[in-house]
Amino acid sequence: MKRIYFTVTNDLIYDQRMHRICTTLAENGYDITLVGRKLPSSLPLAEKKFKQERIRCFWIKGKFFYAEYNIRLFFFLLFKKMDAICAIDLDTIIPCLYISRCKKITRIYDAHEFFSELKEVISRPGIQKIWQRIEKKAVPKFKWGYTVSESIAVEFHRRYGVNYKTIRNVPLLQELDNMVTTEKFILYQGAVNQARGFEYLIPAMQWINARLVICGDGNFMPQLKKLISDYQLQDKIELKGMLAPSALGKIAQLAYIGVAVPEKEGLNQYLALPNKFFDYIHAGLPQVTVDYPEYRKMNKQFEVAVLIDNLAPKRIAAAINNLLVDDVLHRRLKENCLIARQELNWQQEERKLLSFYQSVLTY
């Protein structure tokens, strides 16, 4: 049985992509361990079909956290037996590179994001230079890898000459609960981080004839709360924080429109195809989102969204308000979501994951 370690810097509770990947591999004969961090607020880990380990750090965020976590992760892994190691994103790639060399084992890179092109990175040139150096040093040394969109895979090949597979961040296909919508509210689910377009979405709510429910947390939360206060939208916007996947799924099925308006600044947002796009589809939820390459490609095939060409608040408001009142359009998008979810699901996507690991670990 092949033993594989996966490494992340986040808490393990809410990482649905890693839960899916690790569960699929564990169910197909691999011995899987997922390693993450333990925060003071961390909940107890739920039992899974794979092993889970968490590392506690003194530092919670910033450069000292990354330095401490990488050092702790290296020594944690040094004394573990494994046949392969997979670094999830750039922030754990260095210890995984050194461990793979020490142990002479296969190393794999799973790029959930184009890390050096995140807005919170590119907005700080000094920090971006550090991550770019790490990326330039490490990524070419990871022959095997995969990422979440074809566009990011193409960019990795252009920059570093690597040929990474695309394994999309799609949910497991499950039966819908047939819940009845009693209110036409708008849902945003996912990370509340920079570059998610809240600076445009919140002002847009002045002209939108519905309530916005935000499910998630992140580094932009203080600014988000200030925006809500500045525009006096406390009665129109509800912040629910982080929710368990099961609770989030029920809210998505009750919502009327999903929204995602990531900024173009930074290649990560422009080239990515994030999980919320597919989560809305699986909830049968029409969405308003951006006319970026991967969204356009998906929408051309399935037509599940209204795509907007700019993030002006009045443009966002107009698109959402139109979808709120155009019952024919809403019904068509919803029906297309129900069709698309039969193809865009983890039961289909996991076949590519298994094929990848079978080829890599028998190479």
Order of helices and strands: EHEEHEHEHHEHEEHEHEHEHHEHEHHH
Mean pLDDT: 95
Give the termini separation: 15 Å
Strand content: 15-25%
Q: How large is the radius of gyration?
A: 20 Å
Task: Please explain how this structure is put together.
The protein is of the alpha/beta class. The protein has two domains: 3-170 and 345-360, Glycogen Phosphorylase B (Rossmann fold), CATH 3.40.50.2000; 186-340, Glycogen Phosphorylase B (Rossmann fold). 44% of the residues lie in helices and 17% in strands. It is built from 15 helices and 13 strands. The longest helix is centred in the first third of the chain and has 17 residues, at 62-78. The radius of gyration is 20 Å and the shape is globular. It starts with a strand and ends with a helix. The mean pLDDT is 95.
Give keywords.
single chain; 363 residues; alpha/beta; Rossmann fold; 2 domains; seven-stranded parallel beta sheet; six-stranded parallel beta sheet; 13 strands; 44% helix; globular
In short:
The protein is of the alpha/beta class. The protein has helices spanning 16-27, 62-78, 93-103, 119-122, 125-138, 150-160, 198-204, 221-230, 245-254, 267-271, 275-282, 293-302, 313-325, 327-340, 346-360, and strands spanning 3-7, 31-38, 51-56, 84-88, 106-111, 144-147, 165-166, 186-189, 212-215, 237-241, 257-259, 287-290, 305-308.
